[in-house]
Amino acid sequence: DRYGFKKISHHVTLEDYDAWERPYSEHLERRRVKWDALMKQFGLSTDQPTRFPPKSEKIKRYARKGIPPEWRGAAWFWYAGGPGLQKKHEGVYFNLLSKIKRGEELKDTDREHIERDLNRTFPDNLTFKPDPSPSSARTSSSDDGDSGPETPIIGALRRVLQAFAVHRPSIGYCQSLNFIAGLLLLFLDSDEEKAFLLLNVITSDYLPGTHGVSLEGANIDIAVLMTSLKELLPGVWAKLDDQPASAASNPLTLPTVSLATTPWFLTLYLTTLPVESALRIWDVLFIEGSKTLFRAALAIFKLTEPRIKAVQDPMEVFQIVQTAPRALLDVNGLMELCFRKRGQGFGGLSQDTIERRR
């Protein structure tokens, strides 16, 4: 596809993809014209922009319909407050790399786990896939881990994850951060410092505690999701709730199916939804915050509701929740459900409600 990912998967055929992609490309072109006009209104460049209009209701509307793909990384960085963070933390990333190079502070377990996950990060993406030709193969140095052909972005990913593990010892390295950092590098033209700063924002502001050693934050967020599901989609909840009645008083006694939803938040949907669907959620996340992730989860349950209600076996329900999202190509339909306030939408779920439930 336009990002170097495979179009087809176990869940999406080439015919499905092409049938979706043709009209969606036209949608992107229409949105690009709108964004161009908006940028010009603010006197901003439309050629590789690094600055964007301030957050407003109009910007929220525009982001919900998609940021132009080639501007995405720069827009995420801008709306997450990246330029200010870059000034505030000037030199921090490179100082961390120097410490690691001197053999200081990086735990052996973090180093090993990072090394293990590097080549598991988007192995089907052209930018990440090792080039087998001898002329283009880079070899990892022995102190970095396994030797072998390596693309430049894998080296960048190693450095970002190692620096983050030293900078945030309460997290260190958590499996799934490789996907988030990898995608940031892909859309930030491999700017390691920017990817490092955004990884910090995501793990502290949008998903606090989610990637900590105990994963307590992840469990809390799934409990918040399940509470919202019980309230807003009681028919779906009735099929998911497999805990004894005595557990009802404890909000952290989660149904078995919650295990299938934990990766949704841990990887910000990157291993759950088709790529464009996940990217559209990211477009909104950096402007509106973590309520976006909860609304998206509810929309996924709404879209899979007919299939969930059609089966009786709890294992079949688990399988549907685990696999059905990977076929949800219709991202415009998904986003419409996330933000519509009337009828079947989840636009009424506010950030305040989420923080209170957390």
UniProtKB/TrEMBL annotation:
InterPro entries: Rab-GAP-TBC_dom (IPR000195), Rab-GAP_TBC_sf (IPR035969), Rab_GAP_TBC_domain (IPR050302). Residues 66-289 form the Rab-GAP TBC domain. GO terms for molecular function: GTPase activator activity; small GTPase binding. Gene3D superfamilies: putative rabgap domain of human tbc1 domain family member 14 like domains (1.10.8.270), Ypt/Rab-GAP domain of gyp1p, domain 3 (1.10.472.80). SUPFAM superfamilies: Ypt/Rab-GAP domain of gyp1p. Residues 121-149 are annotated as: Disordered. SMART domains: TBC (SM00164). This is RabGAP/TBC. The lineage of its organism: Eukaryota, Fungi, Dikarya, Ascomycota, Pezizomycotina.
